[in-house]
Design a protein that fits this description.
By secondary structure, this protein is an alpha/beta fold. The chain folds into two domains: about 240 residues, Rossmann fold (3-Layer(aba) Sandwich), CATH 3.40.50; about 170 residues, Rossmann fold (3-Layer(aba) Sandwich). The chain is built from 17 helices and 18 strands. Helix 2 crosses helix 15.
């Protein structure tokens, strides 16, 4: 057990964390190194950086780290830099090499320690990020995801402006037990109620926020990088794949991605001359991934390709005969947008986020219906799109999901929050605190916003 306090002008953070002594040292060392020893320190030395900083956390890391939120921030952050923002991205120590450069495409990477754990990794890293943000005093703190949003009230107590992007109902993921789902629901509640601004990556998420919390939010979707498809085929040849003759799926090997449904549908469909390429890896060991690997070993023409990025992933998309996304849970799937950006025919489960992207019934199947999935795969295997048709798919996707437009909308949301007059939803300013930027949470206001939205409306 370690306890004590970290002091800073206008800020005192009490600590009491039960960790292994070595882990405790690492955590405190990372925090102190990140906030520095005085307000004149620069970015790498820590300290109070500037009120121009956008401080982003809630993801494992980037570049080339598996995950939808990771891909989202990897593409968004450099675009924000191009628009004139000073962006600091907090990455988790287990996923980013300590020898990697502290800057990437103009984005400053702040590597903060955390444990590599299914259940505690996100929470611990988010708490550390909150403490560091409280000392650095950035212009905006942007939290990605509802799990890290647990610390939203802490950031508000520190007097910081907070934006939370809701990437999906993580508590609906099949891998989580009751306790984890409860924590994730709490994170959603705290993030949606206490953030100054809320962003949803899909209209279905925006409707959820309005229905559950009576809060409005901006819909700013995921995007896609539009580039010319590679003509090279060497990377797919190394995997034993033939152009136009394989089914592709991309995603982490977790239950909600439902690669098992696809594998069984592929086996039952018996597509002559076709292979199934499953791209992705596990972040934490799980029984589902073990079962999927075992079944793939005894099924003909199934390639477990592991995690792929860069040129290898581009070739896999560009030369696929079809792309299938059988998920039970998504936010707004970037992998689906990436497949469409290469003009690949797609087949998706009928969950709301997928239906925001794909509307043709011949490219949609009921989630979990292996027989219907197999039948539609067989029909799609007979489809041969000409170059003009594939290009039309590509252009349509790029027009709807352009990272430049997405970054511009996000930047506008930041500017609106900064320029707005003081209108706190759960805090009231104190003149004595105005010079330090500190705020206090009013207990009565806290109780009011904590009640369900329907109760608040009934009392108005």
């Amino acid at each position: 057990m370690i306890s004590g306090s970290v002091s800073w002008p206008g800020l005192t953070v009490l600590t009491a964390v039960k960790l292994h002594p070595g882990a405790s040292y690492k955590m405190l060392h990372q925090i102190l190194r990140s906030i520095g020893t005085g307000p004149t320190k620069g970015l790498n030395g820590g300290g109070v950086v500037s009120d121009r900083e956008i401080f982003i956390f809630g993801f494992r890391g980037f570049p080339d780290v598996q995950g939808g939120i990771e891909t989202h921030v990897e593409n968004l952050a450099p675009k924000l830099v191009e628009l004139g923002h000073r962006v600091t991205a907090c990455v988790r120590s287990p996923y980013v090499d300590p020898q990697r450069s502290k800057e990437w495409k103009g984005v400053r990477l702040l590597r903060l320690w955390t444990v590599r754990s299914t259940y505690f990794e996100t929470l611990l890293h988010s708490l550390i990020c909150a403490v560091v943000a409280g000392a650095r005093r950035p212009k905006i703190v942007h939290i990605q995801g509802i799990g890290p949003a647990l610390v939203t009230p802490v950031l508000r107590i520190f007097g910081l402006r907070v934006v939370v992007t809701h990437h999906g109902e993580d508590y609906s993921r099949e891998k989580w037990g009751r306790a984890a789902r409860t924590v994730l629901r709490l994170g959603e509640t705290l993030g949606m109620r206490f953030a100054h601004k809320r962003i949803a990556i899909s209209h279905s998420i925006a409707k959820l926020i309005a229905a559950k919390y009576g809060k409005s939010c901006e819909v700013i979707p995921n995007g896609v990088v539009f580039a010319d498809p590679p003509s090279q085929k060497d990377k797919i040849a190394e995997l034993g794949l033939e152009p136009g003759r394989y089914v592709l799926t991309v995603g982490r090997l977790v239950p909600e991605k439902r690669q098992m449904d696809l594998l069984r549908a592929f086996r039952d469909a018996g597509l002559k001359g076709w292979k199934l390429a499953i791209v992705g890896r596990i972040d934490h060991k799980n029984k589902y991934a073990d079962l999927l690997a075992s079944e793939a070993m005894v099924t003909e023409n199934v390639v477990m390709a592991g995690f792929q990025s860069g040129e290898s992933l581009r070739q896999l998309y560009a030369h696929a005969g079809m792309f299938v996304l059988p998920s039970s849970h998504e936010g707004l799937p970037i992998v689906l947008l990436e497949a469409l950006s290469y003009g690949v025919p797609v087949l998706v489960s009928d969950i709301p986020p997928n239906l925001e992207v794909v509307s043709d019934p011949s490219h949609i199947f009921p989630m979990g219906d292996v027989a219907d999935l197999g039948a539609k795969m067989s029909a799609l295997a007979e489809l041969r799109l000409n170059p003009a048709e594939r290009e039309a798919i590509r252009r349509g996707c790029a027009r709807r999901y352009d990272w430049n437009e997405i970054a511009a909308k996000t930047s506008a949301a930041y500017d609106e929050l900064v320029d707005a007059k003081a209108r706190p939803a759960l805090t009231r300013s104190n003149p004595a605190q105005a010079s330090t930027g500190q705020t206090t949470i009013n207990v009565h206001e806290f109780r009011r916003v904590s009640r369900p939205a329907r109760q608040r409306r009934s009392r108005q």
